[in-house]
């Protein structure tokens, strides 16, 4: 899923920079649906082949039984970790690196790790308890990224991207007007032009 995450980040970033909010939204939907499909397929395969997989590296009955008992946790982890990197890639491509950093730190170190330590060392769950803590952390991270992505106004993201570009010191009025003229949506183009012109004027006056 790492390659798909990079692809999502690059595609979303390019479409936002090009002023195509609808294409960016469609790209997010396609890549998320693809990741969900792949994750479901991998989860089904792991559960269906849990016994053959557990006997690949050992012949110990005790180890095999322990591995089989942990396979449901592995399946849940595969499912969540198949979706979470894609959403992180979308967030990075959209310029939300700071938000992703806060979500990662909060989900893993504030929620997942403490819960894993308590379940692993203070209960009888043992290794399963530590794993449950990691699963809870990934689940919190995934839900947070889903909420952020679902509530995103992609038109506003394009405006924000263009506005930040136009207030740069080296951005000229001609380049701002060019970004307006090359925008596919007329209404967005007018807004881009207004934002860029104001940014160019303020930059030149300073």
UniProtKB/TrEMBL annotation:
Cited InterPro entries: MATE_fam
Family statement: Belongs to the multi antimicrobial extrusion (MATE) (TC 2.A.66.1) family.
TM region positions: 26-51, 63-83, 90-111, 131-154
GO molecular function, one term: antiporter activity
Name of this protein: Protein TRANSPARENT TESTA 12
Organism: Aegilops tauschii subsp. strangulata (Goatgrass)
Entry keywords, A to Z: Membrane, Transmembrane, Transmembrane helix
GO cellular component terms given for this protein: membrane
């Amino acid at each position: 899923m790492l390659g798909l995450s990079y692809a999502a980040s690059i595609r979303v970033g390019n479409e936002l920079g090009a002023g195509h909010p609808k294409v960016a939204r469609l790209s997010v939907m396609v890549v998320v649906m693809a990741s969900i499909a792949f994750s479901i397929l991998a989860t089904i395969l792991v559960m269906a082949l849990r016994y053959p997989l557990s006997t690949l590296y050992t012949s110990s009955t005790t180890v095999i039984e322990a591995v089989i008992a942990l396979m449901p946790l592995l399946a849940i982890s595969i499912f969540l970790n198949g979706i979470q990197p894609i959403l992180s890639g979308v967030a990075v491509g959209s310029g939300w690196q700071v938000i992703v950093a806060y979500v990662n730190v909060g989900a893993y170190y504030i929620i997942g790790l403490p819960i894993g330590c308590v379940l692993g060392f203070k209960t009888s769950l043992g290794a399963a308890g530590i794993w449950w803590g990691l699963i809870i952390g990934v689940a919190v991270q995934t839900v947070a990224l889903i909420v952020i992505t679902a509530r995103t106004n992609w038109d506003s993201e394009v405006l924000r991207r263009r506005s930040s570009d136009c207030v740069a010191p080296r951005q000229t009025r001609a380049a701002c007007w060019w970004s307006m003229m090359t925008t596919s949506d007329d209404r967005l183009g007018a807004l881009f032009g207004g934002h860029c012109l104001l940014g160019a004027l303020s930059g030149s006056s300073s």
